[in-house]
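Why show two proteins at once? Because comparison is the fastest way to build intuition. When a single record is shown, students tend to memorize it. When two are placed side by side, the eye starts asking what differs. So, the first record is below.
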Amino acid sequence: MPFSEGTPRTGERRLSVNPFYGPANPLGDMAEAPPTHRLPDPPMAPATAHQLVRDELMLDGNARLNLATFVTTWMEPEAGVLMAECRDKNMIDKDEYPRTAELERRCVAMLADLWNAPDPATAVGCSTTGSSEACMLAGMALKRRWAQRNADRYPAARPNLVMGVNVQVCWEKFCNFWEVEARLVPMEGERFHLDPQAAAELCDENTIGVVGILGSTFDGSYEPIADLCAALDGLQERTGLDVPVHVDGASGAMVAPFLDEDLVWDFRLPRVASINTSGHKYGLVYPGVGWALWRDAEALPEELVFRVNYLGGDMPTFALNFSRPGAQVVAQYYTFLRLGRQGYRAVQQAARDVATELAGRVEALGDFRLLTRGDELPVFAFTTAPDVTAYDVFDVSRRLRESGWLVPAYTFPANREDLSVLRVVCRNGFSADLAELLAQDLERLLPDLRRQQRPLTEDRGAATSFHH
């Protein structure tokens, strides 16, 4: 979450209040307009406060038209009711809310089975506030296991983590916060994610693990997890180095099990020690809930699990935070129960169908080149065709925003910084009808864009608010 700076009180702005927002007497509560950056002195009627906040929020974008985010923007009303009923339950208090804790345990067991853990009954896991926390926990476990194996050298030796340059920023944060060297496999040519052999070559005796991404946020493509494990098997045969793999399945771990059943990426690969996913992405739950699972108790060092006596009960916990609402975990269990395997397969297939159809429509316009087609994650990335010089992807993103569409434009990382793309995330709730409207709006913009003398974006860094 970005830090916010306070606003100086000099020349402080005050909210404008319509007298009708007050009680029966329109002047009753309107003696003084409330300030914006300090607490008002008197209270106000709940209806007044509600209306003031609601008016300001009207200026937010429409979440359903936000094609930058992977986060779920639509759930059934029944799920919303359950979440409202559980928002006051503290997830950490498992003694006071044992049924909520039981639903969390069931979700972990369901995911262990879905991801083919050798023995789902012995797999260990927990809910988190999202994949970022789940990745931090997985990284901590990798580092602690490495430190145990290298107790004679650590802390003098500096641990490292190998991953593609396309990883989500949470992995950069992990390496920074936990003092781990980040070893990044660069992009090359038309390969926009990790190369297995290049990753293996970066490993040494100080490598705590390799991260494979099942669904890159840059273009929606799966990294080849099985090939990565094979490359690390070869490394072990040559050098004796036994390097574990963590699969960051923030999105793909809730897509591949249903649509790509023959793809081997999960605990069927002995080298995969842990997996995370975002329940609030293709897990189809409102933010924020994530999941972290380890193949067995050995993969999660016991000393990282805290056992505390809280409110009268012995409570094992592995988390970076403490109190948080149980609503999202309950919503995850509801969605698992509601959809089952067949329902998830239908929902994810519908999202993939929308993505591939829309990608085809974009390609048919002739002005764009597809990098991916939405046939892995329901996500595709595209750039302008080589002969298009009048405008760039940042111009397209800005013009689409005029119609309410939030389509991010951004530049790729090192070795492919010359490549700028647009990316469309197709989620549950982004229907074929909405996709048709987006395609029509994009086609309608093209004649005007083609008449430009040159691209109009001067500061590409400020051209989009999207960041990975």
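Second record. Ask yourself what differs from the first in the token line.
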Amino acid sequence: MSLGGKIRMARGRQTQAYLAEKLAVSVNTLSAYEKNRSLPSLEIFKRICKIYGLSADELLEIMDISNTPDNEGEMLDHKLANLRDQLDITQEKMAALIGVSVSTWSKYETGNRTPPLNRFLQICKNCKVSADYLLGLKEKV
């Protein structure tokens, strides 16, 4: 099932207006998420997970989380830097692995930019790390 379908299923009988208000987005924006016309930002995605008590790993279909570090760092930027260090790869190699420029990856590590959901998914799947961990939905895996 698509991410949009999973969001729709989690919403259940609640109206789009109810969830849109909780997420601080328009009903049209929520509808676009549910119809897979657009992806929510990473922050909105995290809010959806929290509102419904959902696992980001399950929603994104991330199965192998074997490289998830121990609880190092509290913010996404620190966790991304720690992950790269744990994998013992350069920023250049990490950037190539997920299909972004080195400058963009560097901004992810310094907190000057947040990865969009599609890049976040690439990080999790290619690096075998838990989305729940990176988003702070679980302290430890």
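One difference worth noting in the second protein: The chain has a mean pLDDT of 91.
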